[in-house]
Design goal:
Structural class: mainly alpha
Helix content: 55-70%
Number of strands: 0
Radius of gyration: 44 Å
Number of helices: 4
Largest sheet: none
Order of helices and strands: HHHH
Distance between the termini: 94 Å
Number of domains: 2
Length: 195
């Protein structure tokens, strides 16, 4: 059996390309890279805090406190341009991630509701079809069973055959098991009227 490794390699690479195309970005990446305000505030805050730490470790605080002036700007710069923008950016990231979670929850809820509605519509269509079939069957069979006592009742004739009601005294009154019942409805008359 010969194996074409070139074709196998091409299939593997094609499968890897498909997998890379289907990969969704992480929620953190969407919230940071996709939003310029969040990304800028995080980078500004982290950059200022990094410079402040470098100043304290390597330059002993001389970057933010010039020697000719006695004012130390380090604390103000650290808070105003370091911690506040960093906290703002991280807050936007966490709010965005929670919003993405809520969106995914609502999407699944909407999907489940749509599936439920589709199932219910299918059931309603099946019931409507069954009712239509039953109505058609009832319409087909009601012609000879109903309206036996209508205006033209004299035109109806009884079906021939022996009726046996159990043999009380004679064979003419035998069992009526299996006999077709006779249904009737009144046409145009009051339901309480005997005639």
């Amino acid at each position: 059996m010969l194996v074409d490794f070139t074709e196998l390699r091409n299939r593997v690479l094609a499968g890897e390309e498909d997998a890379e195309a289907e990969v969704l970005p992480s929620p953190v990446k969407v919230e940071t890279v996709g939003n310029t305000i969040t990304l800028a505030s995080i980078l500004l805050g982290a950059g200022v805090l990094g410079v402040r730490m470098l100043d304290r470790i390597k330059y002993e605080g001389k970057i933010f406190k010039p020697e000719d002036e006695g004012t130390d700007y380090g604390k103000f710069v650290t808070v105003a341009f370091g911690w506040i923008p960093l906290a703002f950016g991280l807050g936007r990231v966490t709010r965005g991630m929670s919003a993405q979670d809520e969106i995914s929850k609502y999407e699944t809820l909407v999907t489940e509701a749509e599936n439920f509605v589709e199932e219910m519509e299918g059931e309603m269509e099946e019931k409507a079809a069954e009712q239509a079939e039953q109505a058609a069957a009832a319409k087909n069979t009601s012609g000879y069973q109903f309206d036996l006592l209508s205006e033209d009742w004299k035109l109806h004739t009884a079906t021939p055959g022996v009726v046996d009601f159990g043999g009380f005294g004679s064979s003419a009154y035998g069992s009526a098991f299996g006999q077709q019942p006779v249904f009737y409805r009144r046409s145009g008359k009051s339901p309480t009227s005997p005639f």
